[in-house]
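Minutes, project huddle
Topic: does the predicted pose make sense with flavin mononucleotide bound?
PN asked that the exact inputs be recorded in the minutes so nobody has to dig through chat later. Recorded below.
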Amino acid sequence: MERIGIEESVETKTLTKKLNIEGKLITAPMAEVTDSPFRIISKKFGAAMTFTQMVSAEGILKNNFNSLRFLTFAREERPVAVQILGNDPGIFRETVKEIVKFKPAMIDLNAGCPVTKVTSKKMGSALMSERSLFGEIVKAMSDSAGDIPISVKLRLGPNKNVINVIENAKVAVDNGAGVVSIHARTQDEEYEIEPHWEWIAKAKKEIDAQIVGNGSIFNYKDAKRMISETGCDFVMVGRGALGNPFLFSRFNKLMDSGVETEEPSIAIVKETLLEHLKLIFREYGAILGLDKAKKNIIWYFKRFDGIDFLIVNLIPLKEENDIFSLVEIHAEKLFDGFYKKSDKTLIDKKFKERIVFWLLN
Ligand SMILES: Cc1cc2nc3c(=O)[nH]c(=O)nc-3n(C[C@H](O)[C@H](O)[C@H](O)COP(=O)(O)O)c2cc1C
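Predicted holo structure (tokens), as shared on screen:
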């Protein structure tokens, strides 16, 4: 285990590649969410880099249709990082050679996913407890990546009694990773648990890599606070970016000119949502686009009154046209102050707990 860390460090330290992007905010990889439409909108509003969702390393090599679909991105979406999932260094070595042809800005190893279906196969966050294998995978990726930076996305460790993020980050760097992303929760912590940003700060002090901080950035001021509290090089935004690309533009404005901005108006939210919906239907077509459109409509409107009425009317819709009409009608009612003030605590709680939420069940 230690051998990998020490032996390779001499050889690879000079080879580690750093991320070269303009800006500080990165969108997190999110399964079923970080697709082409999401990337285009996030970039338009100022995200410095976006991600694919996690893609099976083996699936790419086997030309699995979905894996290739998740992997690919358009030129206009660049810079995009690709995240891969797996447990076999040999497969990673070959897969990364394929991925390099797409010229992503970075190739990331998923070593943070806590879902049992993944960890039971020694993938995702299970790799953090298999340090020798973890080091071999990072080394295989680095060997095949050429000029493209390699990163790892880690959690803090299995639980609060076994925090091993610093040890794992060191192994990753010794094996060629130039970037380390830290989702500051343990493997057994749910999303509503407050993240422990102090570990991001500790990694920044102790690890010779660019550090990406991640965990509960829900508005643009949170991002600024994470940078000042931890010193991290980049901030990764997950749930906070859902239906809220404005987080990126507001953060950039704050950093560039110190200006604090108001929440975007109903008109701006509607206009951005319509643009996002058109991209969704262009990408997925009228049938597959429906559910993705519905999720996004709820996310965009969740901070306004009348969200429960919106959901009740939205769920049964089956036609693309009806989706667009409902957005217009709902926005019109919001302009007119039609809905009575609603308590947003419940929807906020469900959003944070369940991520993809439907208030009806
Ligand atoms: C819907 C959803 C899907 C996710 N899928 C992935 C994934 O594919 N790969 C990954 O490393 N993390 C995934 N995550 C975790 C996020 O990348 C991020 O680490 C987590 O949401 C914490 O950030 P946040 O508190 O800003 O949401 C996912 C999270 C959500 C909400």
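Observations noted during the meeting:
- The chain is about 50% helix and 10% strand.
- The CA atoms of residues 81 and 106 lie 5 Å apart.
No decisions taken; revisit at the next huddle.
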